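Hello K.,

You asked for the raw outputs rather than the summary table, so here they are, unedited. I folded two proteins back to back in the same session to keep the settings identical. This is the first:
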Amino acid sequence: MKKEKTEFRTAAEKLVSQMTVDEKIGQLRHAAPAVGRLGIPEYNYWNECLHGVARAGEATVFPQCMTMAATFDAPLVRSEAGAIADEGRAKFNEFRKAAPAARFHCLTYCTPNINIFRDPRWGRGQETFGEDPYLTSVMGAEFVKGLQGDGKFHKTDAELKHFAVHSGPESERHSFDARPPLRDLYGTYLRAFRYCIEKADAGIVMCAYNRFFGEACAASERLIGKILREEMGFDGLVVSDYLALDDLHGGHKLTSDPVESAALALNSGLQLEYGETWKHLREAYDRGLVTEEKITEAAVSVFETRFRLGLFEKTQFDDIPYSVVCCREHRELNLRAARESVVLLENDGILPLKNVKNLAVIGPNGDSMMSLLGNYNGTPLRPVTPKAGICRACDEAGIGFRYSAGCDFRKPQPDSDGITTKLLTEAVVAADTSDAVILCVGLNPDMEGEEGVASDSGVRGDKNSLELPAVQRELLAAIAATGKPIITVNMSGSCVSLSEFAKSSRAVIQMFYPGECGGTALADVLFGRQNPCGRLPITFYKSTGDLPDIRDYSMKGRTYRFFTGEPEYPFGYGKSYTEFAYSDAAAERDGDAVVISANVTNTGKYPGREVTQCYVRLPYGNPELAGFVKTELAPGECRRVSVTVPVSGTGWYGDDGAFHPISGKTVFFIGGHQPDPVSARLTGYDCLSVGIEADN
């Protein structure tokens, strides 16, 4: 159902009514030319701000999206997005004084990526909020709200991507045809899009590269017209991914030439192209393949976006000063986010560090800028690597410090003398002369990412294994042979197998890609200035042998919701330096909602933040996340913590794609993790369960 017409759409209709066909066509490409006679300036729609304003000079580089998901802190995500929007507006205000709008200098952002990270081999998983539809929905919606603001005008415009059913393989994205079962289509792949449209009023949706049941996503009447427009009620702007229309006649072979591709996309509901195919729209119009009515409809939607951003009048955002870029407040927020994202996987009591006289940082991620930043990043002003952050903390505490890269990320170092390698020797000496070793291993965005960008990936951006490279495992063996205590810190945007490292380490930390303050955040956790409180937003599998074929878009056997094997580390898991106890669980109705509550007590010695998670048992699959809340507790403090679950919005999808809200006797679980045996073994306790009649 169409929403009530806005004043912005009315203004757009009036402006477009004065334009010629050629002028309207020109406005449907991402680099829109000026129309001087109507006072329309140039505008380029292409910008990126996945975790900070990207590719436009200096900006605050926040933790990567996967990292932010690990915080399980929705208000924090909204605050981060608001800071990004402020920096984006400030840059736009200054850039347009100097020159016409250019790529990466505008206010329409190709963000957030709310695809489901269904397979850990997919290189772009780091850009998402993880594998769970509910977590992705909530984090995505808060990010959209932060970017757009809550006033009459949008501060910036968020662009939900990639619509839809897009999560690898990268090597086949220009030709692949995704055909998920309807239950999985509606129950997994589309949920976050619907949620962000309904709860956050996202302004733009970007179509994916792949096909969808035979139709290209960017030219699918079923996907754009029926599902997005009719079923979800989306009334905003629909755009392509970059050069995606080339695939209509290229990879997908759906049309014979660019003219037919241009016509097919427009007639299917696409309204703006990132690329060059729509330079052929005039020919398509001349050949009668598209109507002026369709061109006008798209142009109106395009200009509604620009009016909504206040680009044709004075707004309160025009006065945001450039001084907000990389300001102290944003850096403090950034550091808080990085601290909150650290996931402690193992700890035998060595952390937080005490009574250490000499400390060594060893490993390829010890001083890697790339692994701080993740992909689609800006240029940080004051980046702090693990080496820099830990060195500073050691200096402050009077602790001796050693450093060695130990090895390259992937490639063996050539032997200089036929016996050993220089880097490995240096690492062993650093370990031998220290009381403990911080072993910084993992991946970087060259090893996992987007097709054509991740230059060191084995399969065009994706991973073909969950094992860390052999040179890093050899480094582990050499350091373990010294007998010195090892604290392994893994930095990666996705799941890797850590069992080999866990066996040789006294503690294991998962950092993901923590942003420019990552080194400071790590040092704060190691030395006890921050109690780790991050939780895994993805399942850590033991090997690719646990997974179905990446081309299979059925959710069977994927993610914690449908995985029947034993994970290495489960979704929702993470340790603390303190301990939390749950008691007296209860459930009660509150209108259309069920409120699940329990007493949560900090029974340990340290203050800490607990992520209380609520799961619901549905007719199929494992119990799945239905809500969460983060609570700070002092030692000995007890609080009643509640999670509210809407009945009408909680349920399952049948084989026909129809939604079934929970009803009858429904079992909920509440605790600091999901209700599975591995989480219980790792934490030492089971979640509490409570049943309630979900019907009114």
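The second followed immediately with the same parameters:
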Amino acid sequence: MRTVLALNDGWLFLPEQVDDSTPDSRFEPVTLPHANVVLPHRNFDNAEYQFISTYRRRFPAPELAPGQRLFVDFEGAMLASTVYLNGVRLGEYRGGFTPFSFDLTDSLVPGENLLTVHLDSRERPDIPPYGFVVDYLTFGGIYREVALRVIDAVHIADVFVHTHDVLSEQPRVVVETALLNLADAPRDLALRCELLDEDHLPIAQVEEAVSVPTGTLAARHEIALQAGDVRLWALDDPALYTLQVTLLDAGGEADRVDTRFGFREARFEADGFFLNGEHLPLIGLNRHQTYPYIGAAAPARLQRRDAEIVKWELGCNLVRTSHYPQSRHFLDRCDEIGLLVFEEIPGWQHIGDEAWKQLSLDYLRAMIERDRNRPAIVLWGVRVNESGDDTAFYRATNDLAHELDPTRQTGGVRYIWESEFLEDVFTFNDFGFPLREPVHTPYLITEFGGHTFPTKTWDHEERVVEHALRHARVQNQQIGMPTVTGAIGWCAFDYNTHQEFGSGDHICHHGVMDIFRLPKYAAAFYASQIDPAQRVVLQAATVWSMGDRSGGGVNPLVVFSNCDEIEMFIGDERQGCFQPDRATFPHLPHAPYIIPVSNTHITWGRAMADLRLVGYIGGQPVMEQRIASDGLPRALELEADDCELVADGADMTRVAFRIVDRYGNRLPYATQVVTLEVGGPADLIGENPFALAGGQAAVYLRARQEPGTVRVRATTPRLPPAEVTVTVREG
């Protein structure tokens, strides 16, 4: 029977390459996920993380029954990992975004064993995405989790669960199981497949005899089950089931693998995208997996939180994992909350030599085999993002994707309009406006906006408002185009990049949120498309001052809301009730409000009164926003995403702070220095003191390995301090 043991604590780290004779005293104790260097959130040289480091982990040899094998499984390490056990070189894995394993069995010794990883985090041209400079950073470190896995000689190597006829009265489950026999002789066993519901109660079961030959290639067995009456996986009801595959020998269970999946039908067609037979306009954003300070070394809680932000805060139904496979924790949460995913292979514009291409094919295989049971994933990206054509290469990627997963379509993101169309869906980055009329269908817009209009949270009002309206215009037009399945904006969050692409601070300010996952006005546009039954949104896109626009004033006032109508007051004077601008934005679920503001109340040299907006749904007031006219800082706000962490040395939560007016609105020109004090079993990750830009920022709290209460206190001159408390509990 297999045993999987997490191997994330107890590691030692040294930021240089050394051999096993180097004493442990030179190393720093670390817990995975781990970044090889903690960086400021901006203005750093990407060379700072590009070096070869050494990780080591000592562990006792487990007791292995005859025929059992011990593997170490890495979920991701950036960028090339050379692994040793007790001084014996096991091999090198080249690639930072896909999982890899090494067999430790033959190099085990009784008692203590030493696992060593020499991790090359340099931008090597022989490893995708590199060859040229790319518009993102890969950072360094063993940035995902590691585990030890004990398996029998005959074991389950892979399970692929796919569903059929889900819209009929007789939905079916087909289970493809790969069995691997590392023993010297064939084995006759039994294979049991059991379908379990959300409460892990059995629905259906099939058991068959199997004969497993010896060899290094897995033998595949296919079993079908009638599912009966099941719930479909849908965006508003993402029902998940478990397929339990058990390998049985004379002694009972020899191996078991549980696989989570969903019943759903997802198709891109010439006239739109259809989920479970219903047309669904796709509104999405691209996501980079990196964070300030820690690069990509984010634990499960932060990864899952990103999915929640995209779905619940931004109201999207689709996310693209630009431009590489992303954390299983992020994808798990997409499955759980009903967020569709377009996942693609690593790359950015450059195609390398034949060895480079073979690595890309290897990554494609690893990505699909890891994630093909996920109901959230609806499209495989089989081209290097924005690359030129390469017929043989892209025929190979398409063929491999269809071989590994005949249930999903393929796409390949391009920015060349005349690009060769080999995939199932023509996926194109359209940075112009109005949008192009598709030549090929099915058609999905995979990027827009982005570098054409980079926008910082502290930019002047005209720019941040226009940034939001550009997203609104594109999404409005694409929904109204019957041959466009959807549009994925570039992008959800600002991100660090090379100097060749970013602003002067080495950040691409392309997000609808900043690098801390805090909103710009464009985020309010996306949020305003949420069904008001789920969350009411009312956000004026203004700081409400005389001198932030060319020529002065605030005319017109742009408001993003999912309310039916808005009543506006300036001071005590009612300005009227206003409707969404459906003439300009006829296709959006909830059009922005474009409200004329009379010069009677907004004139040079005259003191402005406060703004008050009241949102109505069904004739009833449901939400109000007030904005102070004086623009003066009145409070320092401090908020933690989570009130509880696990004492595992890795768990983290974001702690955000902002300067606000007397009504709680962020002041984008507040530049105070904020000082943070932390007491209790957690460490602060981030700059401290922090010089604000845009009136908002965030740091992270990382739990230590002991329980207790953590108190964070923030201070800034001339404002009362703010405090937040987080509990760290035993895991």
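The mean pLDDT is 94.

Happy to rerun anything if the numbers look odd on your end.

Regards,
P.
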